[in-house]
Amino acid sequence: MTTATATTSDDSSTGGLSWTPRLWGTLIVLCTAMFLDALDTSMVGVALPSIGSELHLSTSTLQWVVSGYVLGYGGLLLLGGRAADLLGRRRVFLVALGVFAGASLLGGLVDDGGLLIAARFLKGVSAAFTAPAGLSIITTTFAEGPARNRALSIYTTCGASGFSLGLVLSGLLTSVGWRWTFLMPVPVALVALLFAVRLLPRPTEERARGGYDVLGAITGTAAVLLLVFTVTEAQGAGWLSVRTLGSLAVVAVLATAFLVVETRTAHPLVRLGIFRNGSVARANLIAFTIFGSYAGFQFIVTLYLQQLLGWSALEMALGLLPAGALVALSATRMGAIVDRFGTGKLLPIGVLALVLGYTVFLRLDEHSSYPALVLPSMILLGIGFALAFPSVNIAATAGVADEEQGLASGLVNTAFQVGSAVVLAVATAAITAGSGGGESPAAQLDGYRPALALVTAVALLGFAVAAAGAVLDRRRKRATPATVPDYDYPSVDLADRQDGMLTKS
Q1: pTM surpassing 0.85?
Q2: Could you tell me if 11 and 18 are in contact, meaning their C-beta atoms sit under 8 angstroms apart?
């Protein structure tokens, strides 16, 4: 990949950096792919009742329309991140984006529930390769510091916007027909693919050296896939059933085998030493909690608003718009905010806003009004994601060598998706247990409240990790006088970098 340079500028609106049109175009292409990945994660939610009605799918089968995507996405992210490092980030990104477009088209045309789930799984697999490849292209192109902060803030905020606006777009499209929620990404992905071919730097970058950790890939991928599958199916099979406990035991065996392989192989799929970087380790834990809690919350809110309060898909879309709008509007400013305050300060504040947003929603009843319940919750969630999502991605890749950026990107995206699958499955089980299978408003509320309490507790755990990280950062700063600008990065050496200089990918 050729070296790109960002020149200094006095324009404060650009954070002191002026980028070439080609560099902006590259970032926009990568942001579009990230937006589509996140959009697809959330957009199907509002369409589920319509899909179930037309294709005659049971509630448990409908869950797999969501979980199939998460299974492919979360299960193969580690492999996708390492493939980007070894095979070339540009090549992996282009191929996976093409597969994503094809799978989207298939999902919009099928008339069978099994084929729809298969298409969703295929889309998840493709996203498992585009997400770490795209993120690692950015982190190896933009120098650690203001340039990378700005790029990552725009990129990750686009992802958060896609996730938030997915509900809105789904409501609008479902009012026309649920198939449009699958077909809409097709032309966008194809256009992004055409521009990616022209704009993404040619494969002259140095790739990670070493062989392929085949045994590690098999055991690690199998462990994640089986974990996601087990927790998703546990509601139907029973959490204490022989099937569920047996599957979890196999997961433990596979995970142990994976760790043994990674400590003994010369070229591991996951170099376990990466977790000695405290920023990376904490960021992955926080990613698990914030994405997991929101996935559970989204599922609860969809059921509550449409089934109990009787909202239409369009009404729900417009009601949830403030959260997505706040995230989208913050995209261009988050880089400067991170530069000024650091991820160590922003992460606890952002996760706390999420906790408060879920707490507000615990007041739900049979006649809750939009201004009193939904609107304040959406505002808090919008603020929370605007602050936490870019910060956690920056923290998860800070201080990581270029040849392992694909790995770091795969790890944090795996944390997002596994958290989503696990918390969603447990929240669904809480709804079923609390309601006792009843369909009356009182029974439904008895299911929603414990599930919301669970979601809030998961987010609170993320806040505790983020707050502990902030305390550790302050202690480290007191013990070690700062010699470079503070971006909350561990041991960042900027001495050999010019202002705004971009590194080779």
Answers
A1: no
A2: yes
